[in-house]
């Protein structure tokens, strides 16, 4: 990232605070951030959050990954494989993408309106990946896998009507059986 001077960071984070108090706060916040990024690091050392001449920046050259980008890459890879007729090879990226998705981007953050479109697009990508994965599992006669996935989604995600409608439309009676089994498993979990 672009370097930012310590004084600019302090003013951005705590407008109007004294230089000494701001420096103490910044030091504490940076320590927590560095510890979160690098468990077990030496005090004051960080490969990611670097300070040079009172300018702080994220070192993009340090090895790192961002789960959002990994998710998007996996979904794109699976879609490309499916377009090429490689449904079996798409299974791995689909499973990895579904496992990587942990919920809506900045869910519950009232100050994140600028992310609404991205949040919705990511959610649709996730649901598309789930639909594709369930469809492949059903196609290959792996109903237990499809049921387990559907059940885990029903537990995590209350807005699954479109997935169920999609499955019923394309897979008919098999999908009805899967929905019945998912409901039964949910009843066992919650009753």
Share of residues in strands: 5-15%
Task: Report the sheet with the most strands, covering strand number, pairing sense and barrel closure.
Answer: 3 strands, antiparallel
Low-confidence stretches: none
Q: What's the mean pLDDT score? A: 78
Order of helices and strands: EHHEEHHHHH
Structural class: mainly alpha
What strand order characterises the main sheet?
Answer: 1-3-2
**Portion of residues within helices:** 55-70%
Shape: elongated
Task: Say how many strands there are.
Answer: 3
Terminal CA distance reads: 50 Å
Q: Gyration radius, to the nearest Å?
A: 23 Å
In DSSP terms, counting alpha (H) and pi (I) runs of 4 or more, how many helices? 7
Brief descriptors of the model:
3-stranded antiparallel β-sheet; 191 residues; elongated; 7 helices; mainly alpha; 3 strands; single chain
In short, what is this structure?
The chain is mainly alpha-helical. Helices cover 66% and strands 5% of the residues.
Write the layout of secondary structure elements.
Layout: E1 4-5, H1 6-13, H2 19-37, E2 49-52, E3 55-58, H3 67-83, H4 87-100, H5 116-139, H6 143-156, H7 161-190
């Amino acid at each position: 990232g672009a370097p930012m001077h310590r004084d600019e960071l302090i003013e951005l984070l705590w407008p109007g605070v004294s230089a000494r108090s701001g420096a103490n706060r910044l030091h504490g916040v940076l320590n927590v951030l560095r510890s979160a990024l690098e468990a077990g690091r030496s005090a004051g050392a960080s490969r990611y959050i670097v300070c040079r001449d009172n300018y702080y920046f994220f070192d993009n050259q340090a090895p790192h990954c961002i789960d959002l980008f990994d998710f998007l890459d996996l979904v794109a890879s699976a879609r490309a494989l499916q377009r090429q007729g490689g449904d079996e090879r798409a299974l791995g990226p689909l499973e990895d993408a579904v496992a990587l998705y942990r919920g809506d981007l900045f869910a519950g953050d009232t100050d994140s309106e600028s992310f609404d479109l991205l949040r919705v697009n990511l959610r649709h990508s996730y649901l598309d990946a789930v639909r594709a994965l369930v469809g492949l599992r059903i196609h290959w006669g792996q109903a237990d896998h499809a049921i387990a996935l559907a059940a885990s989604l029903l537990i995590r995600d209350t807005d699954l009507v479109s997935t169920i409608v999609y499955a019923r439309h394309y897979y008919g009676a098999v999908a009805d059986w899967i929905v019945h089994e998912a409901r039964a498993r949910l009843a066992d979990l919650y009753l």
